[in-house]
Specification:
With 66 residues, this protein is an all-beta fold. The protein is 0% helix and 48% strand.
Length: 66
Amino acid sequence: METPSRFDVFSIKETQAENGETQSWWTRVGRAFRNRDGSINVHLDALPPQGKLQLRVPSEPRPSVN
């Protein structure tokens, strides 16, 4: 498997639902790019309130439904 060079950056907020289950709300807050030396640059459009970030390999774009 090829090492990814681009990532989406997410902030994940967990809340407690009325039924007691934990819900996760994912918000994309930026992009990240792997450099030639293996380091990663992160470009944020927003700051996560919880201070935690998660990098994910971008998924294929979903077709729009009109």
